[in-house]
């Protein structure tokens, strides 16, 4: 134990050598190990302990809890987005081409520093997304993408708050919180029940928006590799490569979820001998079957739901 304690002390001493003194004494900023421990505990909880504890239990009905939680996340994301905007992106102080970190105590700069920490903290509140899946026994929703995305984000943002709480890298948080406002609004509406499904046809486009977000972050970060800017190159690669990784993970999820669903529906129609006139935008269409029966299909876009009622001809 003494050896481990010495290693932790040496790592903290080395990392603290170049830290931003403004955030040095803030909660969880003394060293990386508390945040790393929380992230590893989260992964173990949602992949091992949680499913094991819920194995012989009925899933919890968390409808009201989910509505309140997602509403709180919408408000929290909107507040952080607003704070980051006032810290520079709304006021014209920040440039998309190159924005060095301001280490002064100017009011707008301190606002951005605080907003950066709150963005870091928001990555922990998002753990509840997965915890609620576990409690509802939705283990199939706990994908590799989901766990990787939530599990490494606090650790990734920690470095930004520790060394560069402001400047070019805040574009990531600025764009990400905007996407989260839309995302948690979708989750909140979805939690309200099946009667809301007809209004949630845009789920597919939400995933597309998330991928566009990562492309924008990639371009914004990697442009500094070709221009002169007083911003650490290490963080250019750190942010850019995170965006690349998340883009391909989300792209895999998109292909797996939506393209597979389309292929499955086409295969089922072909198997049943259905000749379809198409189904889009939630309108009902008539399908004719070879055996003379007529089927009325009311479809919702993106496979959210499909209601079939058979009528004898």
TrEMBL record:
Record has Cytoplasm as a keyword: no
Localization per record: Membrane
GO molecular function, one term: fatty acid elongase activity
Enzyme class: transferase
Keyword Transport applies: no
Membrane topology listed for this record: Multi-pass membrane protein
GO biological process, one term: fatty acid elongation, monounsaturated fatty acid
Record's keyword terms, sorted: Fatty acid biosynthesis, Fatty acid metabolism, Lipid biosynthesis, Lipid metabolism, Membrane, Transferase, Transmembrane, Transmembrane helix
Catalysed conversion reaction: a very-long-chain acyl-CoA + malonyl-CoA + H(+) = a very-long-chain 3-oxoacyl-CoA + CO2 + CoA
One family name in Pfam for this protein: ELO
GO cellular component terms, A-Z: endoplasmic reticulum membrane
Membrane spanning residue stretches: 26-45, 66-85, 117-135, 147-165, 171-193, 205-223, 235-254
InterPro entries, per database record: ELO_fam
EC number annotated for this UniProt entry: 2.3.1.199
Family statement: Belongs to the ELO family.
Name the UniProt record assigns to this protein: Elongation of very long chain fatty acids protein
Species of provenance: Phyllotreta striolata
């Amino acid at each position: 134990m003494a050896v481990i304690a010495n290693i932790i002390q040496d790592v903290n001493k080395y990392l603290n050598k170049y830290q931003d003194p403004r955030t040095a004494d803030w909660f969880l900023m003394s060293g990386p190990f508390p945040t790393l421990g929380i992230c590893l505990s989260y992964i173990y909880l949602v992949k091992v302990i949680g499913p094991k504890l819920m194995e012989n239990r009925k899933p919890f009905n968390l409808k009201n809890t989910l509505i309140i939680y997602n509403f709180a996340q919408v408000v929290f994301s909107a507040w952080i987005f607003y704070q980051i905007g006032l810290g520079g992106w709304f006021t014209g102080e920040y440039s998309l081409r190159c924005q060095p970190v301001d280490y002064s105590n100017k009011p707008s700069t301190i606002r951005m520093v605080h907003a950066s920490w709150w963005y870091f903290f928001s990555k922990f509140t998002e753990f509840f997304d997965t915890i609620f899946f576990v409690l509802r026994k939705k283990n199939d929703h706990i994908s590799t993408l989901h766990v990787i995305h939530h599990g490494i984000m606090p650790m990734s943002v920690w470095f930004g708050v520790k060394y560069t709480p402001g400047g070019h890298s805040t574009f990531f948080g600025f764009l990400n919180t905007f996407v989260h406002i839309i995302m948690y609004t979708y989750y909140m509406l979805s939690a309200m029940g099946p009667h809301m499904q007809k209004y949630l046809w845009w789920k597919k486009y939400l995933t597309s928006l998330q991928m566009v977000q990562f492309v924008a972050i990639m371009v914004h970060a990697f442009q500094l590799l070709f221009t002169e800017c007083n911003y650490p190159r290490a963080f250019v690669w750190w942010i850019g490569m995170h965006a690349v990784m998340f883009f391909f993970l989300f792209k895999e999820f998109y292909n797996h979820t939506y393209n597979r669903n389309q292929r499955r529906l086409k295969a089922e129609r072909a198997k049943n001998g259905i000749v379809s006139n198409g189904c889009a935008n939630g309108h009902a269409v008539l399908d004719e079957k070879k055996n003379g029966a007529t089927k009325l299909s009311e479809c919702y876009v993106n496979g959210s739901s499909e209601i079939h009622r058979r009528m004898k001809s």
